[in-house]
Amino acid sequence: MARSYRPVDREQSFLLPPDMRDWLPEGHLAWFVLEVVGQLDTSALHARHPKNGPGRQAYDPDMLLAVLLYAYAVGQRSSRAIERLCSTDVAFRVLCAQDVPDHTRLARFRQEHETVFADVFAQVLVLCAGAGMGRVGVVAIDGTKIAANAGLGANRGEAALRRELAGMQQAAKETVDGIIAEASVVDQAEDAWLGTARGDELAPQFADRARRGAAVQRALQAIEEQQAAQAALSDEQAARAEEYLRAVEAGTPPSSRPPTGVDPVRLEQARLALAERRAADMSNNRFRRSEARRKARVARERLAALAERDAAGGNDEGDAAIGEAKSDQAGGPADRVNVTDPDSRIMKTRNGWVQGYNAQLAVSDDHLILAVALTQDATDPGSFGPMMTAAVAAADRIQSCQPDPTRTGIGIVLADAGYFSEENLTLAGPDRLIACGTGRDMHREAVDHPACGPAPDESNAKDAMRHRLRTAEAAKAYKRRGATVEPVNAHLKDGVGLRRFSRRGLPAATSELNLAAAVVNLRKLYRRTYAIA
């Protein structure tokens, strides 16, 4: 028996609603992004995009900004992928009003407005403050490493860069000499060799070598600047290294990381001697003796590894870049630079070594990003002062948007042990708690050696902070740090997808960080607005 089918009117079945407002539900994120962009001051964008004049009419900058904000909000940062989505995805089609921008236009828009995205971040923060967000009683500062658009294998030392530059110059000279010699060959030989070509075309590798030569020159300039900075800091680093070693040898090891310039062999020998003394101390309990024996075993293994490396003549060429970084744990300048992105640096993360930047965040108690900064320093101490100042300025902006006589600004600033230094503890500003060790060690100290009241008068800033962190009030307050800033790191890296920068150079990466941070706050504002509605 034959089956009967109902005829389908294809013209009607595939038509979208005639009004674009019917394409998406009323509470969709795309409508919210368009509404927010409409409230922003985008005059700086329009100044570069006149609506009249010769040539093709420019895309509306507000439309391009809305497309980028929504793309970052859904974890899409590729210009080509965004162009495709503007043709196939309903939300993107609404945002661009079906006037699909080319991926080149999107990429150039990001490039041409590097300095504007910082203002976009500030304006979004003001909108969040106007919606009642931004509890600044507790502010946490933290740094997170984000990979650059470059690889570890592209790092070169000064000698290697000069050899590479000399090799390219010699190769270019030999190629030019060959072309001049070939000019004297008879036409018949040229026809047999070149065919229909004229013979004076530049080889493809010439363009690449010229660009690479310019990159090598910039890399050499960066190395010279690093060497000058390193020479200026060498005396101060040597003094800090000697002070650190004396403290370890005296049995009072600081909780902070070893400073630049510490002799690794002498450091491990001091650690081994200290661990053996504590393992032999019968007044310690069983757990502490076991922990001391473990540390002694680790120190012996490190000494053996150092001796083996010295016997083998050091790191091989393949591990040279990471070897340089390991010998410079404090993040000081090293005689290596990346020829792909000379501004990026080798940095250590919990998952290994990356070529990247150090992104600094100041976050409020309700997970709103108050300030961001991008640095080339592998460690955090130098960023605490600028980030605290930026957080105070952001808190003042929030207060101006939410007049409240009971609000007194930032109550306390929390930071992990990476910021623990005499300078950061004595800076003028809000009250702060900076960890002097790992969370586990601090909890153990607070339980085994609880403290109360102020520190002794003769204590320096570090000892006073160690004493304070052993009190019940400070220990409880510091627990808010991880719950405040760590989720925002995840929102930035996983929610927005900023685990690797798309563009190269510190200014370009900074602009991308500002755009991503604005999107993180925008998503929080959307969820708050949608929940209230």
Summarize the structure.
With 533 residues, the protein is an alpha/beta fold.
> Can you tell me the overall shape?
flat
- The run of helices and strands is HHHHHHHHEEHHHHHHEEEEHEHEHHHHH
Structural class of the helix and strand makeup?
A: alpha/beta
- Number of contiguous helices: 21
Query: What is the alpha-carbon Rg in Å?
Result: 30 Å
> Which oligomeric state applies?
single chain
Give the number of DSSP strands: 8
Task: Describe what this molecule looks like in 3D.
By secondary structure, this protein is α/β, with parallel strands linked by helices. It folds into three domains: 17-113, no CATH class; 119-151 and 342-513, no CATH class; 155-326. Helices cover 56% and strands 9% of the residues. Strand 4 and strand 5 (352-364) form a beta hairpin. Helix 4 (61-73) packs across helix 21, helix 5 crosses helix 7 (103-112) and helix 8 packs across helix 15.
Q: What key phrases describe this protein's structure?
A:
533 residues; alpha/beta; 3 domains; 21 helices; flat
Question: What is the topology?
Answer:
Elements: H1 10-13, H2 29-39, H3 43-46, H4 61-73, H5 79-88, H6 90-96, H7 103-112, H8 116-130, E1 138-147, E2 155-157, H9 158-182, H10 187-194, H11 204-249, H12 264-280, H13 286-312, H14 320-326, E3 336-338, E4 345-349, E5 352-364, E6 369-375, H15 384-401, E7 412-415, H16 422-426, E8 431-434, H17 439-448, H18 461-469, H19 472-478, H20 480-495, H21 506-532
Parallel strand pairs: 1-7, 7-8
Antiparallel strand pairs: 1-5, 2-3, 4-5, 5-6
Helix pairs in contact: 2-4, 4-21, 5-6, 5-7, 8-15, 8-21, 9-11, 12-13
